[in-house]
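Provenance

Sequences were taken from public entries as deposited. Structures were produced by running a predictor on each sequence independently, with no templates supplied. The record for Transcription initiation factor TFIID subunit 5 from Callaeas wilsoni is shown for reference.
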Amino acid sequence: DRQTLVAVLQFLRRSNLRESEEILRREARLLGDDLGGSVATVATSSPGVAAVAAVPPGKGEARGDCGVGPSSRREPREVGSPYSGPCLRVSSPSSKITHSGDVSAVVVEDQPDVSAVLSAYNQQGDPTLYEEYYSGLKHFIECSLDCHRAELSQLFYPLFVHMYLELVYNQHESEAKSFFERFHGDQECYYQDDLRVLSSLTKKEHMKGNETMLDFRTSKFVLRISRDSYQLLKRHLQEKQNNQIWNIVQEHLYIDIFDGMPRSKQQIDAMVGSLAGEAKREANKAKVFFGLLKEPEFDVPLDDEDEEGENEEGKPKKKKPKKDNVGSKSKKQDPNAPPQNRIPLPELKDSDKLDKVMNMKEAARRVRLGPECLPSICFYTFLNAYQGLTAVDITDDSSMIVGGFADSTVRVWSVTPKKLRSVKTAADLSLIDKESDDVLERIMDEKTASELKILYGHSGPVYGTSFSPDRNYLLSCSEDGTVRLWSLQTFTCLVGYKGHNYPVWDTQFSPYGYYFVSGGHDRVARLWATDHYQPLRIFAGHLADVTCTRFHPNSNYIATGSADRTIRLWDVLNGNCVRIFTGHKGPIHSLAFSPNGRFLATGATDGRVLLWDIGHGLMVGELKGHTDTIYALRFSRDGEILASGSMDNTVRLWDAVKAFEDLETDDFTTATGHINLPENSQDLLLGTYMTKSTPVVHLHFTRRNLLLAAGAYSSQ
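Predicted structure for Transcription initiation factor TFIID subunit 5:
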């Protein structure tokens, strides 16, 4: 649209803004000649500044920070420089826009320094009118049609926060206080905790060190709105000349526009609630290899009685979904599996092969669970745990259980009649005949046999524990900022991994051993290998503590749950974030992958279990019933049942087969996020089991599908 362009250039010349005019000329000539697209202009509140960006015809306009043109990495500008207006981010629902010339719109997500971050609040708006602006918009949204109202209501919270922070930053303290008091009650209930933090920020000085504030400011709040609702809002704000709000929409929000029907209140409520709004649709587009790796082939020596069981059951193996290959010993590669050598995995030792054989024999006697056949539950209660039980794990073969305690100890129990023994001393070992058949028995020292071993070494509460798959090692992570690797042969500490500077909330071994992941208060998750001092990967992106971590069954991905109320899926190979799931209304405390690798279940302080389809990047279910934080989630060995354990002292069993059958994962749903969750999750609930007064902190299905649960009895 050359006329607009010429008009803007003339306006800049009249206003004596030569520098802006030059920039515009340079870019517009490129854009004009190479694109043939229309040029969108944005009016800003700084006197006479206009930023211009190209919008190719028919593409979505999503607001945000970006540079347009070959050198798009912007330095934090000084406020008041001639080119300090907001600028348009160009994004389309289909793909990144790159154009035939050397011009591309590049999305830059850099974390600027504090002063640059806050300086964006240097607005010249009249502080006394903020309440009027906000209530005007509120009135407009509440009077709009039902179909638009639900979508536009998403604007209330981010606008409220930014307008409040702007008032505080510009030292209009009384106006800020009155603005907060008048409108904070209108915000959705799941933002209460954030509003509590916000209410304590009443002076400009408070804003400097406040992380929540800085996050809100640097990460654009993402809203997903249909094109019709967006046009309605744009028209209203431009007619009303309501620049203050329009500037905030431009500067601080990222509006992800989709074509099609606006979403209903239920659909929106299911997906919102995280610290930075919803995930951009682009964030969940990358391909994820969620299939399982092919099991190594080796002969299983079968007993006669096992022969029939083996053929009926298919190839019983923990990590294989038996749904798909009952009766056939399928060795086919899963089409969704990553290449076998995508990440280097440790070689199988002879002892591992023996263990796999044992596993298969156990699995041949496995109970097939379902709505008609629920598992028995065996509950391990920690009595008199006045040391404060903070973490539990159970070995895959259910022979040992470990507790992490607030008194910084790690305690390992044997739950079979076989006692825990250490290896003999070096002097005694030299006397053993190394050729004898029972050499593995002889090296153990009977004098050390006991059913409990206590491991000392941490200097703070132990928040996470994890056994290695081969049961030779144990990981523990603590408030002291370290992750420790213990030997279960000698019951001593082998390594202390130092990388986190703050408490480490969770750690977990890869299902193949060797690799492990940790997540902590420093907001990052780290991937380690047992033989490296330094982490191999650092997964950064969460806006608050990483509270729980889980490996995907194929070990190529890691899921992390955070206090920012989002779940992220990371690619171990390159460290990229490949999925962002929003929908929980509180910090995430438990994660579980389905045995076939296709689905993820997550639990949080909001008492809801959410189910996600990893391949399509969609929420596919919501299980309501718990009344407190969900600390434990586990799928049965074949994936028919999902067990959840909570601080409300109950274990609940859910029908996973029914939850995941006939999912709507057509292209439309995937593209727009129009998810339709069943109204009532009660028909998926198969059973609720109360403990007397014991919060459930860990769940584990044995190889035969007996459910083990654990927690510490609390007397109050």
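Confidence is low (pLDDT under 50) at residues 32-112, 304-330.
The chain is about 25% helix and 25% strand.
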